[in-house]
Amino acid sequence: MKTSKKIPSILILFSGIFLVAFSFSDAQLMPVDAQEFRQAPDYKAIALDGTPVSITDYQGKTILVNLWATWCEPCREEMPALGELHGMFPRSDFEIIGVSIDDPGFEQVIVQTMAEDNLTYPVWLDPENRFQFAFRTIGVPESFLIDADGQIIYQWKGAFDPVSEDTINLVESTIQGTSYQSSEPTILSDGLIAGFVIAFSAGVLSFLSPCVLPLIPVYASLITGMSAKELSQETSQVTRSKLRLTATVKGIMFVIGFSIIFMLLGTTVSFMGNLFFDSIQWIERIGGVVLIVLGLHMIGLFKIPKLEKQIRFDMGKRNSGKFGPLVVGMAFGAGWTPCIGPILAGILTIAASSSSVITGASLLGVYSLGLAIPFLISAIAIDRFLVFFTKIKSKMLLIEKISGGLFVIFGIVLLTGSLVYLNNFFKM
């Protein structure tokens, strides 16, 4: 027998305000492009001649560290321009360092690649990609501009133009110790494409999950104040237009409600991930194991009883007033989180390992969008949704198994540290 739990609206709203304020309270968690610089890690690698090298060896000099691989086409395309940038400034002031994540035994290929493009800047070897965990990267190429004091001044996620006027001015101002506001966008960069694609897909999968899809008529009725029968019956064109307008307006408020909850989760786990910055590799590995277990649960190889439970809210009285659908949406986000937990956990794992709180919130925002779009379409065209649901309900178990399989695969990606390859797949 399922119990009904009531959570006061004011408590939900207060918790949301508190979490937002707490998540953004530490200025060090802001992204590099927001001009809140952070100290570069004491990263160590091996030079091509086998000599141990470190970022701290270049203290007092401006450096641009470029993460690349011989198999990475965007990396190869930007390298000749990196060579041009390298020759524009005296070596005593500025140095470019290429960090190759090629497998062991590719040293000769790396040397040949550098020779083909007449590149003379040093290359470090990092076949285990320790750079990824030290600098919080999610793909190649990625580049970091570090000043003489060891602070990361700028970060390029994905390929960029090393000889653009903007880049040259940025390097020059960094050498001189003056400030320069770059006009290049970096928050929504190519390096996050894989995360956003996965987040949006996960939102759609959550909509199709057995604990959400069957309840769409219930929520459509709840936010419009009409029964499913009334929503689906034939009416005049004027009445139908008014009904759709009501469903759209209230549906958007409902969507905003659960989006607030999910984005608060994203900011919170991102904050925790940044708080335990040095343990990010373990966060990804443990997250990978959790995703594999949850994926196997969704496939049905075994069942975790607590994930089968759902926390329901008595929301019958919460739809009154102008902000009723907003509160109902927030209750939906909080109450059904355990039900869609296996899918949501994957996005939260990515958010925990993201480079900033804003990135984490953005990932959960995209996840909410993937859940919101089909919901709004269903609420507006409830009659067609009922026909669609009749056709698809027999396949819901298969959909859940497919979702479980996808999350097992993604869990393996996190566990093996192969997210870099996934990002490059989405860039093709």
TrEMBL record:
CDD domains xrefs: TlpA_like_family
Localisation: Cell membrane
Transmembrane segments: 192-220, 252-276, 282-302, 323-351, 357-382, 402-422
Keyword Kinase: no
UniProt key word Transcription: no
Thioredoxin domain sequence ranges: 34-176
Keywords per UniProt: Cell membrane, Membrane, Transmembrane, Transmembrane helix
Gene3D superfamilies: Glutaredoxin
Main location: membrane
Membrane topology note: Multi-pass membrane protein
GO molecular function, one term: antioxidant activity
An example Gene Ontology CC term for this record: plasma membrane
GO BP annotation list: cytochrome complex assembly
Similarity section: Belongs to the DsbD family.
PANTHER family: CYTOCHROME C-TYPE BIOGENESIS PROTEIN HI_1454-RELATED
Protein name: Thiol-disulfide oxidoreductase
Originating organism: Candidatus Nitrosomarinus catalinensis
